[in-house]
Amino acid sequence: MAEIQGKMEEEEEATLAELRYLHRTYMERYSLVMEEIRNVVGENNSLGGASVVLGNIENASNHETLIGVGPGIYLKGLIENPDTVMVSVGGGYIVEKGVEDAKKFVEGWIERHNKEANALMKEREELEGAIMDISYRIGKAQEELHV
């Protein structure tokens, strides 16, 4: 009888160790998802600012502006032709686009980021549920071991 009791306790401890491992794994994934959400939201905020500037660019002709050339380093520049802008399209490529095309391009980025943020938020909710369930199961397993 004592041998069977000892075997059952070993299995419960193994289950508890597995639950703790799963809990750590889900918590690490949760941290990564939260970081990615912050990145996507930050990028969307920047894109939103670009969209506002593009919406008002017709008022920028012959106005001075600051052009970022590095962290905290700017050049003064004069906007001569606000009809076109240079847009990074990925892979290190920059193309010249008309303002309306650039607005559409930025809006497309914003839409893709919103979809990505929604998917990440759904994953976050699923992880939160799984973490709560595993935490509950860990608590129950610990109670059973100490009874």
Write the layout of secondary structure elements.
Elements: H1 2-55, E1 64-70, E2 73-78, E3 84-90, E4 93-98, H2 99-146
Antiparallel strand pairs: 1-2, 3-4
Helix pairs in contact: 1-2
Q: Could you name the key traits of this structure?
A:
147 residues, two-stranded antiparallel ribbon, alpha+beta, 2 helices, Helix Hairpins
Structural description of this entry:
- With 147 residues, this protein is α+β, with helices and mostly antiparallel strands.
- It has one domain: Helix Hairpins, CATH 1.10.287.
- The protein contains 2 helices and 4 strands.
- It has helices spanning 2-55, 99-146, and strands spanning 64-70, 73-78, 84-90, 93-98.
- The strands form 2 sheets. Strands 1-2 form a two-stranded antiparallel sheet.
- Helix 1 runs antiparallel to helix 2.
- The two termini are 17 Å apart.
Number of strands: 4
CATH topology: Helix Hairpins
Low-confidence residue ranges: 4-8
* Mean pLDDT figure: 86
Helix residue percentage: 55-70%
- Principal-axes geometry comes out as elongated
- Strand-and-helix sequence, N→C? HEEEEH
**What is the name of the CATH class?**
Mainly Alpha
Largest sheet: 2 strands, antiparallel
Spatial strand order of the main sheet: 1-2
Task: Assign the CATH architecture.
Answer: Orthogonal Bundle
Distance separating the two termini: 17 Å
User: How many domains would you count in the coordinates?
Assistant: 1
Q: How many helices?
A: 2
Question: Helix/strand/pairing class, anyone?
Answer: alpha+beta
**C-alpha Rg (nearest Å):** 27 Å
Content of β-strand: 15-25%
